[in-house]
């Protein structure tokens, strides 16, 4: 580890904190409809309502809100599925890619409609420009806007008194898209083009290699897709290599900008929450919980990846820079560790390094970030309503301990809210663990493994965790483009998104009906360091009790197996003689420039052999 690496992490954390207040306050004005100063955009907004036959003044109950959401995304899944199946017959296909198979097309359609961006394909070799733009990019906008809309509906339920409605789904999605997502994406895409990210509809470019062979260099409308894929929490790359590809992430500044885009909406919505409920300390408390969990995860991964990989101890590999296997060589261990933490903490799933090559305990943290129900920061909207679900669990447990009816911001948290919260929190683990178990015993599941033992189990567990947590990243050693994995991962993605959203909307409707009661001497304060500690403990305990057995079989077992293997190799190596030790001391004085330093770990390994 180096001070430059820690400085990168500190700089990112500082920049992410700076945007919380201004962007969060702006989103709050969008949520309450007070933002009307952009007349051209307001004109487009009203035109959309007239075209769709929507009355923006008419609000919906939670049931109507949920039905509108489900129908909207069902139509999106059908449209994206059909676009992939017919792309060979449609325009904007200069590379001439074929139609996508039915199981993969369904997997991809559900993936992007659920804000997951799981990719069992290589984008530059599988999808046409039209499928990337009109299919993938459009769904990234709409799935992101839906997540923010659900979060706003839940906050309205907490803030309102004796209300029958929680907002209008069509208005929320339209306003978030027009006033928040599009402006940021236009500016962000221009910045990426300036940094060197291509944006073209021209065909792929041919080039002759030094050996005389022909190489096809993939291009396309990359910058426009890159910004929304990062900001939306979708994370799906235009290229198979995702943000490790120099056309998606050409510079270190670009990499920092992309990480900020990933966290942008997730952190800002905590301030929006405080503004809408009229108590800003509540929003900062939620932000503090996210910050504690994120910093702990980033520090753990960086500390692990900055160390040598003991599995390479017997091969004489120079590991002075840490575990560089699978890392982005342009940026080093620190930024690759930070990018991995950001992408798994946010449900985004974009990658600039190979998660499959991380140290076992680092892989454990990456999975834990997703297993905690998107509360470290989470996706846009889903991170906010995910952490609020844990708030309900925490105040319920605290209320039982002090013998009072639990309450939060003046609303009593009763049996109905707790049941819905637990349903939303337990649905993803049920699909993660259940489908992982099925894949571990069926031949169709085992056929996709390229690794045996604990690491192979980790690959399966990571895949279903990523799908149910709507993340989309992968331990890419798993060959997942098969009918079995395409269909089972589709089920996990659908459940992890919509079987969480529906209980959240039910809670919003239930809370909106209730009166707000004034605080009393027995009211549990839900702000400050004490409640932050209670929240962190609740999240870790619930996650630990749910997933520790499976993590013990995967990354924990792999870690100890690696340590045992290294110990066995060391015991088989002969002990150095006194003459050899004297030679080493002398060699330090005359070793020529450019040779390995015999005092380095790699040099010591070579001498022992």
Q: How large is the share of residues in beta strands?
A: under 5%
Q: Main sheet, how many strands, which sense, barrel? A: 2 strands, antiparallel
**Number of DSSP strands?**
4
For the CA atoms, what is the radius of gyration? 25 Å
Helix content: 55-70%
Lateral strand order in the biggest sheet = 1-2
What string, H for helix and E for strand, traces the elements in order?
A: HHHHHHHHEEHHHHHHEEHHHHHHH
Number of helices: 21
From the N-terminal CA to the C-terminal CA, the straight-line distance is 28 Å
Low-confidence stretches: 576-609
Please, could you describe this protein's structure?
This protein is mainly alpha-helical. It has two domains: 3-206 and 214-566, no CATH class; 576-608, no CATH class. The chain contains 21 helices and four strands. The protein has helices at residues 3-18, 20-31, 39-52, 62-85, 102-113, 123-126, 129-159, 169-195, 222-231, 252-277, 280-305, 332-345, 360-371, 382-402, 415-441, 443-446, 453-468, 483-512, 529-572, 578-590, 601-608; strands at 205-208, 214-217, 407-408, 411-412. The strands form two sheets. It has a two-stranded antiparallel sheet. Helix 1 runs parallel beside helix 12, helix 4 (62-85) runs antiparallel to helix 18 (483-512) and helix 7 (129-159) packs parallel to helix 10. The longest helix is centred in the C-terminal third of the chain and has 44 residues, at 529-572. It is globular. The model is unreliable at 576-609 (pLDDT under 50).
